[in-house]
Every structure is written in C-alpha cells, then in structure tokens.
Amino acid sequence: MTCDIAVTRAGHIAVIEICRPPANYFDHELIGELVRSAKDLQTQGTRAIVLCSQGKHFCAGANFASGVLGSDRARASELLYREAIRLFEVEVPLVAAVQGSAVGGGLGLACAADFRVASGSTRFHANFSALGFHPGFGLSATLPEIVGSQQALDMLYTSRRVDGQRAFEISLADRLVPEGHERDGALELAAEIADAAPLAVRSIKATLRGPLIERVRAVLERELSEQRRLWTTKDSQIGIAASLARERPVFTGE
Which CATH architecture has domain 5-180? Predict the structure, then answer.
C-alpha cells in the first residue's frame, strides 16, 4: 500500500486518510489506492468509511504546478476519471471530513462521498471557470444533485468560494462542527450509520445512488472532452498562470 494512503479500522468503522499534506493533491494512483482500500474494507465487515486528509486542507485537486501539460494532462485526467467512477461504486457509505479547503477536483472528491462534515473555516471552491476550463471529477452531476441546479450554476459560473456556514445552508455540508473537529464529526456520523442494519443501508445506497453513478459515468466523458478542448485555449493558459502567481486573471475569450 502506498504511504500516501493510511487505513485504520475500529469495529465497523474505517478511516481512509490521504497523506500528502498540506494541499493533499491527488493523481490517479492515489485515487486508485483509495478505491482499492475502500472496496477491501467493504468485504471486511466495515459499515461506514470516513474519508479524511492530513494537514491544513482536505484536497486541492490536481497540482497544476507539476508541469503536466497538453496531451499528458488529458491522459492523466482520463486515468484519474477511470478511477473516480469506481469510487462511486463503493457499496458502504462514505463520510468526508472536510477541513481547510476542498478546491477543484478536491471538491469533486468531497462530493463523491455520501456526506460531508465541515466547520465554519472550511472553504468549498469550484474554481474551474477562474482557471479557464471545464469542471471534472463528475461535479457536473454531483454538485447539482447536492445543492440544486441554481446554486451549482452560481458556484461553477463564478468560481465563488463557499464557506462552511453557507455550505451547510445549501446542503453542501451535512454537519457543521467547530473548527478542528471535522474528523470527530465525521466519525460521529459514521457511527450513527454503522448502528443501522448494514444490509439495509447498502440496499438503500444502491437504490438512491445507483442512478447517480450512471449520470456520473456519462458526464465524465463530457467533462474530459471539454477539458481537452479548453486546455488548448489562451484563456486556460491565462487562468492557470494567474492561479500559480496568485493574481487575478484577465481573460480574452480566446
């Protein structure tokens, strides 16, 4: 098992921790290991899984400072999304403990979970339009499912940051806890789930989440196609460069 993923288990509850602090950037290898760990756990009597991260932030998605460009970036995303769809297929409920920021693909990872626990200091940021390209990781399906189409449009069109309190108000966060207690809150919710009849919970998840899996599978193809196209534009170059320089982008529409 990669040292970038840590797995612990106590009774019927397991914790999968991403260990790439402080930003916890992901790639397809990490998501693949996360999925394999979750699927192994669901065969071992685990009834709920807490997904969390070390350090300051939950996850900042892909690392655009890594130098992966052009066709290599498209191939990396294709591999990533191949693993991402398998995450939605995990049969036991996933509870994400979201501390700090969930940005870009990191927001997509949080939205792949069944529940999200946040604090007032948590920041959810669908920053794709500020980077000049299309959302990914299935967010085109999951975000409207969670917050409603209008709230999703607002977040995606404007790249607006949403704090934990606002996230709770729009149902992006299911529990709001004091800062620093995000993991504790997620474990409490996982314990409530684990106390319920496990076969019934899995059956309910399959019924309610099954149609979402099919929508995510279809939308991932669209997301990747649009990302491939938009990554070649001048606006995407401007947006990514501005993000790395921590400057405000000025887009040209090219």
Answer: Alpha-Beta Complex (3.90)
